[in-house]
Amino acid sequence: MSNVTPELRAAALVSKAWPYEEARKLLKRYPQIAEGGAPEKGHVLFETGYGPSGLPHIGTFNEVLRTTMVRRAFESLCDVPTRLIAFSDDMDGLRKVPDNVPNQEMLREHLGKPLTQVPDPFEKYESFAHHNNARLREFLDQFGFEYEFASSTDYYTGGRFDDALRKVLRHYSGIMDVMLPTLRAERQATYSPVLPISPNSGIVLQVPVEVVDAEAGLIAFEDAGERIVQSVLGGKAKLQWKVDWAMRWVALDVDYEMAGKDLIDSVTQSGKIARVLGGRPPEGFNYEMFLDEKGEKISKSKGNGLSLEQWLTYGPEESIAFYAYREPKKAKQLHLGVIPRAIDEYWQFRGNYAGQAVEQRLGNPVHHIHNGEPPAETLPVTFGLLLNLVGVMGEATKEQVWGYLTNYVPDANPETYPALDRLIGYALAYARDFVAPTLNKRAPVGVEIEALQRLDAELAALPADATAEAIQDQVYEIGKTGGFENLRDWFKALYETLLGSEQGPRMGSFIALYGIANSRKLIAEALAKVA
């Protein structure tokens, strides 16, 4: 964070914003920082993990984003250098074929093999893991994350884990003492912390092993009825994932890694194993999982979550970041329907930022999304209002939308409001694909008919450049005196008869934006449906 002032640092030390609360755990981890010191390795290491057994989704991105927010918060508390490793578990065996990829029959022929040895079903990269790793890195690069990508296969085959693997063999019985009580009886009989790669089939084997020589890295196991003595070094074996996680923490001296709530038990067991290996588990916290529209956990193999590309078709990058920041310990649905609200709430917080005291700014999501330097541009209309506008316009272009915006914003043009210009593009796409197919304008009934006639007459009496407030006053007055049980029924009637939806914008703002003449045409069309 480039604008860290003494005032900001003092406020950050007591801020209740979750990234600062997490960052302070690292200050406690290294008491010497308070005296101007640093960890022995000279930096604090953050890590995120990714299993490339399926296409990356927003849940994957979310972990890197949130970890980056904690990293930046830590950097505002002290001057100790930091690193972030995005680690891909790409040496894992392919357990099942994802539902959302091509060439599934081909993939079934390679079940059990390390993901870097499974051909790419998209036929673009040297392996399935390389394809998914590339997708992840492209997205992280698009957001400008500062990270170091690490491949499990590269670390195993390149020998970077060899010393740690010898340590695992030396402490084999201690690791078994941690793991066996957590397993069912039948699993205990076959469990091994070490998974050899079969020299015959290339499959990651789930078989009991015997430590032959820990210092030499030698194990023995049975493969197709044959006793094999083989090294665990140089990529000829990998570890069961809880043991692998702990080994990685120790080998790399990881200081911080967060994980989903579904991995609480795994974090506990891996922490115990890290201590058996003579290391210290990292700091971190457990976030809640994203759910799909049905309330089910998002799965890479099912492909039931939003893809990164899908969100970015209908909303800007900062709207994803905003959604990920909010309430990380609360389960949230993640589907296309949440995008419009995320966009509008982001802009609401961004609009408040400039007028806030430093303590409030540190708790504002945009502070963490933009690393303390949110852009100054504000938004003259909401995204929801844009959606209503393009919804009634039908097929429209950006230029046509800007033409309507001049009714509402005197200096409306793409040069003055570049962010709004981008949002118009997202609104057109979202309205085309998700709003237009659902619009159904019904005929007004009962007291609604006279109320719409009164609204038409009041609009006719107003000047063409009437303000949104003046129009809203008329709408409000008709609702109060038009025979409705409550104002909610009046506004619901307006949305359903004029816009074709159950929910809608502040009508004064919409009419000012769409224009009084055009709005009167909508009223005339609605009244024409009355039998």
For the record, the count of structural domains works out to 3
What level of helicity do the residues show?
40-55%
Rg over CA atoms, rounded to whole Å, is 29 Å
The number of helical elements comes to 24
Largest sheet composition: 3 strands, parallel
The class by helix and strand makeup works out as mainly alpha
- The count of β-strands is 12
The appropriate CATH architecture of the largest domain is 3-Layer(aba) Sandwich
Strand content: 5-15%
Q: Kindly report the average pLDDT value.
A: 93
The CATH first-level class of the largest domain comes to Alpha Beta
Give a written overview of the molecule.
It contains 24 helices and 12 strands. By secondary structure, it is mainly alpha-helical. The protein folds into 3 domains: 1-160 and 288-376, 3-Layer(aba) Sandwich (Rossmann fold); 383-438; 447-527, Arc Repressor Mutant, subunit A.
Keyphrases for this structure?
12 strands, Rossmann fold, 3 domains, Arc Repressor Mutant, subunit A, three-stranded parallel β-sheet, about 525 residues, about 10% strand, mainly alpha
Please provide a brief summary of the model.
With about 525 residues, the chain is mainly α. It has helices at about 5-10, 20-30, 60-75, 105-110, 130-140, 150-155, 160-170, 170-180, 185-190, 240-250, 265-275, 310-315, 315-325, 340-355, 360, 365-370, 385-395, 400-405, 420-435, 445-460, 470-480, 485-500, 505-515, 515-525, and strands spanning about 45-50, 80-90, 150, 195, 210-215, 220-225, 225-230, 235-240, 260, 285, 290, 330-335.
